[in-house]
Structures are given as C-alpha cells and as structure tokens.
Specification:
The chain is an alpha/beta fold and about 450 residues long. It has 3 domains: about 170 residues, FAD/NAD(P)-binding domain; about 80 residues, protoporphyrinogen ix oxidase, domain 3 (Orthogonal Bundle), CATH 1.10.3110; about 100 residues, Polyamine Oxidase, Chain A, domain 2 (Alpha-Beta Complex), CATH 3.90.660.10. The chain is built from 14 helices and 19 strands. The strands form 5 sheets. The protein has a 7-stranded mixed beta sheet with strand order 7-6-15-16-17-14-18. The radius of gyration is 23 Å and the shape is globular. The two termini are about 20 Å apart. The relative contact order is 0.19.
Length: about 450
C-alpha cells in the first residue's frame, strides 16, 4: 500500500499515474489543489494568487492539454514593470527603453561591464543571489530593479540567498538584446513565459480537478498527525469530528512542507529534525479585489520594485478570462510578502493595497470596491540559502532510506512550477510501479 499525503498537483499526479498499484490519497482540506486552487466570492473567481501555465516538458504539456481539452486559451504575455512613474515591459533587462536616459545608461554600461570582467569562480551554492545579479546583469540593473524588487519579495538581504535556483527563471540576455531593449527595438520575445495558457472559465482549480476522474477517490478533511517511520504507520485525524485512522504503508509519498512532515516523525533523527526546523521561507498576503469599473488595466500582471508601493506584484484575472468576473467590473490580485511570524490585519492589508493602487494610477479615489478579501499563504516561496544546500539533501536521503518520498515545491523545498510538480509526481509513480513489479514473484 502506498500512502500519499497532500492532494496538490504533485500528490494528484502521483495517484493518477499509479495505475494498478494500491494507494490512498489524503488531503487536509475539503478541496484538492493545495495552493493551485480558486474560489468564488460575489460573482468573481479568484485564484490563490497568480497561476499561469507554461511548459518546457513536452510530455507534461501533452498530459495537461489532454486533461483540459477544449478548456485552455493561449495568451501573449502582457507583463510590465512600473518604476520611475512609467511602464516598461517585462523582463527588465531587455526592456529599459522609456526609463529616464540616465537610468538606461546605467543599466547599459553596467551590463557591458559584466562582459569584460572575470567570471566569479565560486559555484552557485557559494555565490550569493546578489553576486549573481551583479555578475550577470550589472550594477545598473541591480540598482534599478533586481535588488529592490527581490528584497521587497524575499524580506532579507540578497547576500543571504544562494544563486543555485535562478538560471531558468532569470536568464542572462545577449548584448544585442540589451541594446535593442534600450533603443525600443523588439525582434523577439524574451523569458521563460512569453506566452501562457489559462482556463477559459472557473480559474486554475480546473487543473487539479481534472485529475480526479483518473483517481480512485480522495480522503478529504484528513490531516496527517504522526508517522512512525520504523513501523511504517501513518496516523490521520478527521478534522470534522476528530476521529483517528491509522494506516500501514510500504511507501509514503509526502507533498507537505518538509518542516511540517518532520514535526510529525517522532522517531526521525533529532539532528535532521532540527535542520528542517531551521529552513526558511517567506509568506504572502494575497489581497483579492474587485472594482465597479471596467478595464482598470489592459495588462496581465505588473511588478513594483520601488519601496513606495507595499506590494511586489499585481495581476488582473479578468484579463486572463472575462468569465472570472461580473460585467462592468474589474478584478485584481495584489501580492504583499511578509515573514511567517509577521502579518498585518486584513483591514490594514486592504487599506495599504488600495492606497498603493491609487498612487500608481490603477484605481481612482472614487472607485467602489465590490470585493475585498485576503488569503494568507503561509508557505509561499522557500529560501535557497547555505543551510538549505546542506540540510535538504540529507533530509531527503534519510526519508527515502525509510521509504518516504518527499516531492513538490515544499516537499523538495525548491522553486518549481505547476508543470514541475506534475512531472515529479509522474516520475515517482513510475518508479514505485517498477519497484512494486520487481517485488512480485514471477
């Protein structure tokens, strides 16, 4: 028997691909999806912050397009950065045209300097994120976007973060691209998501729900309480009535955050439990708003690097799909990060968000908010730091030695996309099926 903990995309994909192998899938919430969920409020559909589909793996792209056949629409990215009271296209490093001339000059000369100075010899786990930015993009781009934006998001100095996660998210451009971007010449799309797919209706929740017909039931409302890793027993509690269920397993697949899993493993080595407890992350307050005015923006999402604005990103769901809101209105999600132990009240978050949106000219003082709602994403983005580099491989190896496979964004403690989570579940399921077949006598 295989026990799967967590019905986010990684857990759902694992179950979906375990055809012919006995398993049980447990989820603490009443809905599947983890953070890949949507909810409705007063005629508007909001995701748990922005979730857009873009693919690098053909097999996962084919799977998702099969699961959501006829339900996806393709969009050409309309994403911008708002700084110096102007909009420039994302990504910043190849779109400085329109900024003040002295800013463009700093960015261009700083980038050119990176092409002539020696490359840092230290590896990505030794080199800080800030050093990576300076080495690859230069002092101008660091000053005017990369450092202020990322320190607003991460809530720590970028010297504390390693650079072993940035290569696919922040590609280094060629000199021609940077010069063209400074002159306003556009001859190609840039970045890992120049276009994206999104459901035509009902929000991103249709993706996790599309796995359910291929899964033999999900036990919702069941929270993992304890795992005896030596006896291979997992204890779950029904959140509705407190009833307890104990399950024996041969393999356990966990998609919950590593610190939460190890808290529930009393017989796990204390040194590794302490290491898990010391892992760091940043939380996000997701402020969802709807306003009684059409087309408050024609963009998909915006980045705000300047400290004058409390949020780091704002998106507009009804520009992904008009079906996500009411006629004559606009909807938006506003993202403000905070340390896990520090959080403002919902009222203060809504007030600050509105003030910032008015300051940016997106909202008007007389705009009527018809929805103002806040979701706190306690685990949002994990820190890649020196401690993570040492701790996570040791923790994952010891878990696997005990028949526990920790996958997904928080199970691997990494930066992964929805595609990556689905792919990890698929690959693990295929391994477990192979091992199970090998264990059966001929």
């Amino acid at each position: 028997m295989i026990i799967i903990v967590g019905a986010g995309l990684a857990g759902l994909s694992t179950a979906y691909h375990l055809s012919g192998v006995p398993y049980r899938l447990y989820e603490r919430e009443q809905e599947v999806g983890g953070l890949c969920r949507s909810y409705q409020k007063d005629g508007f559909t909001f995701d748990y912050t922005g979730h857009l589909l873009h693919f690098r793996q053909p097999e996962i792209k084919a799977l998702v397009e099969h699961l959501l056949a006829g339900q996806l629409q393709r969009h050409a990215r309309k994403s911008f950065i708002y700084s110096h009271q102007t909009y420039t296209e994302y990504p910043f490093q190849v779109n400085t045209f329109g900024l003040p001339p002295e800013v463009v000059r700093e960015c261009l000369l700083g980038f050119i300097e990176t092409l002539t100075k020696p490359v840092t010899s230290s590896g990505p786990m030794q080199r800080s994120f800030k050093d990576w930015i300076l080495d690859n993009l230069g002092e101008g781009m660091a000053k005017h976007f990369m450092v202020p934006f990322n320190e607003k998001l991460w809530k720590v100095s970028l010297d504390e973060l390693t650079s072993d996660w940035v290569s696919w998210l922040v590609p280094k451009p060629e000199l021609k691209d940077v010069v063209n971007g400074a002159l306003g010449i556009k001859d190609k799309a840039f970045g890992y998501n120049p276009s994206f797919l999104y459901p035509a209706s009902n929000g991103i929740k249709v993706l996790p729900e599309s796995f359910l017909p291929g899964i033999r039931g999900v036990r919702n409302g069941m929270e993992l309480m304890e795992v005896n890793t030596k006896r291979k027993r997992a204890v779950f509690r029904q959140r509705a009535d407190g009833r307890v269920r104990e399950e024996a397993y041969e393999s356990l697949v966990s998609t919950i955050p590593i610190p939460e899993l190890l808290k529930r493993c009393p017989d796990f080595p204390q040194q590794l439990k302490d290491a898990a407890e010391a892992l760091r992350w940043v939380s996000v307050s997701n402020v969802n708003l709807a306003v009684a005015r059409e087309q408050v923006s024609d963009k998909h999402w915006l980045y705000f690097p300047e400290p004058a604005y409390p949020f780091y990103r704002v998106g507009f769901p009804m520009n992904f799909s008009p079906a996500l809101g009411r006629s004559g209105c606009s909807s938006m999600y506003v993202e403000l990060s905070h340390r896990p132990t520090e959080q403002l009240s919902d009222e203060e978050l809504i007030t600050r968000s509105r003030q910032g949106l008015e300051q940016a000219g997106i909202l008007k003082p007389d705009d009527e908010l018809v929805v103002a709602d806040v979701k706190n994403l306690h685990y949002a983005y994990v820190y890649f730091d020196q401690h993570r580099a040492r701790a996570v491989p040791a923790i994952v190896a010891e878990l696997e030695r005990r028949g526990i496979y920790s996958i997904g964004r928080y199970g691997r403690w990494e930066h992964t996309s929805m595609e990556d989570a689905i792919g990890q579940g698929k690959r693990l399921a295929e391994q477990l099926r192979t091992w199970g077949a090998q264990a059966v006598p001929a």
